[in-house]
Recover the amino acids of this structure.
């Protein structure tokens, strides 16, 4: 924790300061790279790492503030320092918070409606993660009150472990403070931005602090803090701090977060209501109650009392590591030689594999990892891609589960037919992931519209940027005609159909920081497609069976409707008695019922 | 349908309405066979002759289209149960009509079906088809089944006395067709019981009412000593039967005067002379083998320098179709030449086109010239 905190505090010096105990993984975040680039010389090259999207706007910003450009200033140590120093005087550290206030759209606060949703979403995600990590069956209550003038009070309570007093202000008063970014482990949140970003948005739009009430044990008093963020320094500012406040909740421990934000509340698609509904589907072990602006309460009951298996934390896999991340890892490794560093810090690297990598990179296994030149690291990175390495362990990914997903769909959607499938875990770029698909058909679903697509990543509903998402692409690329579902070219299938796709992974490759769409890795597309096909085939069978039934019904109908007329006609022509007529009718009905042929 | 039965039916037709008991017997027989099959746990079937040009052959000796014997079988299955039920109910209706000596127009039959609950017809064409089916099934004329068309039979003027019966007294009723003035005698739907008296030399069957009017107005029948009959397009069955009976009985030649286009030739003239594919089962009685084609011929167009219109797409199609599929045209080289010539000319001419040379040119010049040499008429 403290390490994280320091990292974000960076002092803004250009000096390469390895000592700063930034955790390696922070580099993954482009945001950070930008900030850090001013601080550290070497890791600057790192700026290219994973979430490249965010780093782009940052660099632009740097460009404005420091005309010489952050990147340049570091590498040329050989060049005149005086020039660099002179420029440095005009350079100023940009706080991540400050950056956010100017680029809030990157985090999902681009418009008032979405801001309200994002706020709820971040709080709910955090709560669920906290409960699960503490092995507590989650129970959440979400409330939104309309305060008028487009202001809303958002309140979320969870029965999680609570937050100890000293941590409260850091969690809610600093961006990039969190427990999740520094590890490769499946969880909803990834970067520690979300909830503090929501707090910052609240502060920006209403000037009000975030109010956190929490209790960590039945034996201890609850505490309530009012926290704001000093955006210049990305440091918390505590406005109120009460100990021993009254605790009115049903549970001994838990946390209530309240904030006031400017927003727009709307129902329907992409609403808070829909988000919670979908969250309930993907989290059948959670009990969620929701009180909307009209004071109406909706309760999404629990479907199982079993917590999902705890995801295992894994080390990065050589195939998935970015060059910049590799450089940082080598800098920070505790391994004394290259061979040891590789074996120690990566998953699935045995001694044999480590030696093979070194050989392919033409590096000595005994080389000091911290002394490798950039060119050597590049060679090493390339070698990692060439040597055949076993896939990472996939036990670290936890799906919802085929049965539970199916049951959850049945609970949440009123339809006639449900099916679900969970694929075996697979790997993209060294990251394990697992795909699940659920389908619901018929019932009260609208029949003449495009299907409804529910996308989930690590149990979190994705509600925006549907068209950019790998999930959407996979659904469109699947030929639904095979399953008796109509589909226009290049479009989602249509009919009374809900398609649910869940991707669980230690690292879901989102296309942007706001986590709205999954990037289109071929491995991911393939897995989704296979799962869709499996469910599609089942749906196709169901629909064929139903068609047969309908035909069967029509046949029965025909027999019952028209055969009596044959009886009447024969009676009239032949002068049959009632009994004879009945006999003819029943005999003919039997004969026709026995025949399978319709024509 | 045993072969024996078939002959039985033919006798029934010849006897006209007198065969009503026979008809109801046929219906009972058919229904009985169906009932027995049902009781035996089998699916009953009905066999219908296929009614199309593809299933007829032209027999020049007797002079009409005859069924080749192709049949379609309708087995009672789930898919056909509705039509099957409707056919049987229609047969029942027919039996009732025949037995009480009543008639129903096709439209009335359609309305009667409205009592049949789910088996009722939605539109009249559906019930017409079923009536046609029943008619073909028994190889009889629908009038014998008690069903009559709405259509008018045709108009007659000229040297002819039709002997009908007074509806009430049953006494003979003499209808003098010379005494309708500018009007005409209307051919009734059933012509089997009519008698004829005439001194005319020939019958002139005319396509259009307009031309008929002109000839009546100027008492052409007096001048040429003939009987004029207006067919009004394709002649109805009653019209065909009327001409046939009159021509047979009084040994009169029949000359046909129609437009010069594929419709006039292959639809109107051909149907009058040899019958149609659709009614092939009754052509024997509803055709006029002695009919000859007076005009207007393709040669007339050239000879009389008639104004023309270009052939329409549908005309060309009809002509080619006749050349390819019509057994009558295929039998007569003269018709093949005529149609081919018409096609190569690419034009058509109406009867009224003669008016170009004067309104009464047709009376004063055209008809006398043509009638001077009936041997030159097309077959």
């Amino acid at each position: 924790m403290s390490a994280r905190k320091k990292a974000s505090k960076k002092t803004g010096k250009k000096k390469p300061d390895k000592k700063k105990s930034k955790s390696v993984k922070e580099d993954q975040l482009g945001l950070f790279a930008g900030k850090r680039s001013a601080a550290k010389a070497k890791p600057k090259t790192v700026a290219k790492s994973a979430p490249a999207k965010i780093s782009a706007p940052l660099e632009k910003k740097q460009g404005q503030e420091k005309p010489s450009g952050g990147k340049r200033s570091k590498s040329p140590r050989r060049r005149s320092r005086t020039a660099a120093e002179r420029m440095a005087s005009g350079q100023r550290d940009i706080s991540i918070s400050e950056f956010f206030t100017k680029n809030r759209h990157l985090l999902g606060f681009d418009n008032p409606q979405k801001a309200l949703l994002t706020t709820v979403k971040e709080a709910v995600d955090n709560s669920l993660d906290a409960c699960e990590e503490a092995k507590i069956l989650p129970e959440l209550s979400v409330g939104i009150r309309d305060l008028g003038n487009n202001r809303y009070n958002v309140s979320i309570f969870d029965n999680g472990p609570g937050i100890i007093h000293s941590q409260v202000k850091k969690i809610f008063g600093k961006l990039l403070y969190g427990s999740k970014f520094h590890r490769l482990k499946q969880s909803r949140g990834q970067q520690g931005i979300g909830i503090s970003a929501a707090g910052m948005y609240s502060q920006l739009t209403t000037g009000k602090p975030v109010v956190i009430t929490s209790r960590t044990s039945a034996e201890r008093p609850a505490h309530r803090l009012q926290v704001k963020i000093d955006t210049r320094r990305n440091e918390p500012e505590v406005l109120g701090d009460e100990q021993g406040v009254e605790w009115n909740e049903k549970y001994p421990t838990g946390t209530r977060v309240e904030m006031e934000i400017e927003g727009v509340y709307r129902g329907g698609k992409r609403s808070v209501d829909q988000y919670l509904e979908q969250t309930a589907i993907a989290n059948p072990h959670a009990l969620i109650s929701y009180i909307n602006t009209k004071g109406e309460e909706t309760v999404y009951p629990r479907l199982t009392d079993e917590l999902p298996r705890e995801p295992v934390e894994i080390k990065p896999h050589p195939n998935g590591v970015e060059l910049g991340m590799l450089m940082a890892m080598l800098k920070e490794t505790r391994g004394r030689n290259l061979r040891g560093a590789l074996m120690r810090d990566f998953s699935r690297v045995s001694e044999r594999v480590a030696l093979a990598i070194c050989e392919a990179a033409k590096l000595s296994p005994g080389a000091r990892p911290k002394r490798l030149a950039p060119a050597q690291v590049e060679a090493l990175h390339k070698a990692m891609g060439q040597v055949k390495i076993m896939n990472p362990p996939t036990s670290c990914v936890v799906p919802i589960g085929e049965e539970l997903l199916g049951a959850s769909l049945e609970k949440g959607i009123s339809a006639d037919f449900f099916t679900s499938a969970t694929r075996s875990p697979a790997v993209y770029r060294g990251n394990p992931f697992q795909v699940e698909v659920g389908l619901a058909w018929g019932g009260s679903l609208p029949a003449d519209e495009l299907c409804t697509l529910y996308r989930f990543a690590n149990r979190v509903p994705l509600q925006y940027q549907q068209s950019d998402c790998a999930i959407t692409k996979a659904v469109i690329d699947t030929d639904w005609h095979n399953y008796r579902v109509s589909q226009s070219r290049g479009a989602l299938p249509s009919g009374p159909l809900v398609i649910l796709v869940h991707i669980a992974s230690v690292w879901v490759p989102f296309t942007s920081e706001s986590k709205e769409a999954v990037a289109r890795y071929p491995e991911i597309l393939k897995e989704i497609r296979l799962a869709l096909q499996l469910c599609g085939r089942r749906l196709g069978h169901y629909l064929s069976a139903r068609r047969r039934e309908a035909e069967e019904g029509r046949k029965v109908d025909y027999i019952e409707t028209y055969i009596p007329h044959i009886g009447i006609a024969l009676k009239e022509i032949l002068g049959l008695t009632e009994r004879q007529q009945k006999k003819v009718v029943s005999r003919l009905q039997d004969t026709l019922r026995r025949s399978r042929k319709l024509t | 349908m045993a072969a024996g039965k078939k002959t039985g039916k033919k006798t029934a037709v010849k006897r006209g309405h007198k065969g009503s008991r026979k008809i109801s017997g046929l219906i009972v027989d058919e229904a009985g066979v169906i009932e027995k099959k049902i009781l035996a746990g089998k699916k009953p079937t009905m066999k219908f002759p296929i009614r199309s040009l593809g299933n007829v052959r032209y027999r020049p000796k007797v002079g009409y289209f005859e069924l080749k014997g192709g049949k379609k079988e309708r087995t009672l299955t789930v898919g056909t149960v509705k039509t099957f039920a409707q056919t049987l109910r229609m047969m029942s209706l027919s039996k009732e009509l025949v037995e009480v000596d009543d008639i129903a127009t096709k439209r009335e039959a359609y309305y009667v079906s409205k009592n049949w609950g789910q088996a009722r017809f939605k539109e009249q064409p559906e019930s017409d088809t079923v009536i046609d089916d029943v008619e073909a099934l028994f190889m009889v004329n629908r009038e014998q089944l008690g069903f009559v068309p709405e259509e008018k039979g045709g108009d007659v003027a000229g040297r002819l006395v039709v002997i009908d019966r007074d509806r009430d007294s049953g006494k003979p009723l003499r209808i003098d067709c010379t005494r309708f003035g500018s009007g005409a005698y209307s051919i009734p739907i059933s012509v089997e019981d009519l008698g004829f008296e005439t001194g005319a030399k020939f019958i002139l069957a005319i396509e259009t009412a307009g031309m008929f009017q002109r000839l009546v107005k100027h008492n052409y029948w007096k001048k040429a000593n003939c009987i004029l009959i207006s067919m009004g397009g394709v002649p109805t069955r009653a019209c065909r039967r009327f001409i046939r009976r009159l021509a047979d009985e009084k040994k009169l030649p029949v000359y046909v005067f129609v437009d010069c286009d594929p419709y006039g030739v292959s639809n109107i003239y051909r149907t009058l002379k040899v019958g149609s594919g659709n009614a092939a089962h009754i052509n024997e009685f509803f055709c006029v083998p002695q009919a000859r084609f007076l005009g207007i011929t393709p040669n007339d167009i050239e000879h009389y320098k008639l104004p023309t219109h270009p052939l329409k797409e549908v005309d060309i199609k009809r002509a080619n179709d006749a050349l390819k599929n019509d057994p009558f045209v295929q039998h007569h080289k003269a018709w093949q030449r005529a149609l081919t010539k018409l096609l190569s000319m690419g034009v058509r001419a109406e009867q009224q086109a003669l008016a170009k040379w004067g309104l009464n040119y047709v009376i004063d010049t055209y008809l006398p010239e043509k009638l001077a040499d009936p041997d030159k008429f097309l077959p």
